[in-house]
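Components:
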Amino acid sequence: MIRLVTFLGGFYFFLEFLLPTEFFGFSFAPYHEYITNGIITVGVAAIGLGLISILRVHGTRILKVSPGWFPSTLLLLSMFAMIFATGNEAILDRNDAKLYERAALLREFATLVAKDGGTAELSAEARTTIALEAVETFIQELPTSAEPEADQSAFQELVVAKTELQRRIDSGSRETLPGVNEGLAQVATALRAYKTTVREASSNRKVYNLLYQGLWTALAAAMFSLLGFYIAAAAYRAFRVRSVESALMMGAAVIVMLGQIPFGVWLYEGLPALRSWFLSVPSSAAFRAIRLGAGVAALLMAIRMWLCLDRKGGKA
Amino acid sequence: MNGLEHATPGALLLLAILLSALFWPKLWRYHRDTVVLRRIPGIDAIEAAVARAAELGRPASFTTSLTALGPVLYGSLGVLRFVAQKCAQYRNRLLLPQSAPDVMAVCDQAVADSYRSVGRLNAVRPADTVFLTDTQFAFAAGYMGLLQRENVGAAFLFGDFAAESLILAEAGQAVDAMQVAATTSPEQVAFFVCATDATLIGEELFAASGYLGRDEEDMKALFVQDRAKLALLVLVIVGVLLETGASIFGYESGLIQRGLQWMPSFGGAIVAS
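Structure:
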């Protein structure tokens, strides 16, 4: 059964790779999207399993006070803090997006009314009134007072934009609709700026920033920066001339390194060109040979996996 | 190509060579005894490294780093099975730092099978398969910590690697572990050459399991690989001759023009593969 499913799955993707998007007038693209979405869905379900697994493994360790209970506690605390912070952020984002979307829709409607006038069912005046009333309702839903942690100047800009929009609505004619449209754009921009300041100053964002920017990014950068020291240490070991090959390697490396820096040009102006030749001719040829050989071997391994000729992962 | 997207002559030719050699090896005069495996110092070092770790009474470790399920991982599994069998025979621990749940399940199964094959299934220690993380540098940090804490005597780095390669290799150096690395990423080969005791380059990763296990399917695969590479070599030479001819006689010459029109489809197939 496993072999059959593997073969059919492989056969599907094999054909998907070979056949055109439209084959004898039949377009497979929409179905392919369904299938790939299905695969993604299965993957997403694994997140839930992962959460359960983490809670089981680390929860047991904490409850039994087994060795490593303290890092496990930190892990679970960080996980819940991050889930809370990002979940909350997503909800706020969705609420804000609804407001921006409404502003965009209202602008679209105002443009349409200004351009087309009335329809068979509704006169131009009636449509204008509906548009202006909708804009007025939108204004009423906007924040009326600044949140304590927000940037006050951003709120003032929103108030100015709101007042200006209200003034344009109050004139109440179809001719003012382009002005209302412009006012809506200003309100949307000011609202976005204000919401950004509110969000940046929120305790939710502070938790997120502390964990992600303050810890995660900084720790990853620290690990990456270790590479600089490791490269120096590895280069020292590699460049000790003990054989003809290591002498060749060192010679090539010295030329490439000197060709990369201004000091090299000062020594000999042909060094950058020599460096480029080393990288684009011998080095590039070696890279291609490795890629070609590995590519053929990988293709063959893929075929063996597809046809279940290889069972190194365990007996199926 | 008349609407067909990747079904170029190159792709079909490559596929025909690979499939015909896999299913009708006699068509290509395959015989197990005629396949000569060249000695590769890196592969010989694998057994030496496991034995050294056992002698020192220190565990061995095998990582595929961030390699996802795919041909490279399956190529590495042959070596993992060999290393696990040897560890089981020498009654030594084998640590498996992991970065992906699906890969972890496959590696776990391969190790269990290997221990079972030498009659030591009860010696498998599930706690030695450690899930670290799927994030590059966090994985590197976890791996460094693991090697330091467990004082690993032999470290095997097989698979696809990126910027973390040197960090992993230096972690092994720091605990004086004998290290064997194999990667298909040309950019990382230089780092491994500098920082490990033996390095398998590119396709040698796939050849290693055939060399170690002498399994019929592996031997056949090595044979097929060679024939496919021969076909590619011929294509490269034809391409070079056509381009050289074009630079001498001009691109308008009928034969050269036709040849050069066909070449990209072959080249495209190779790149796609």
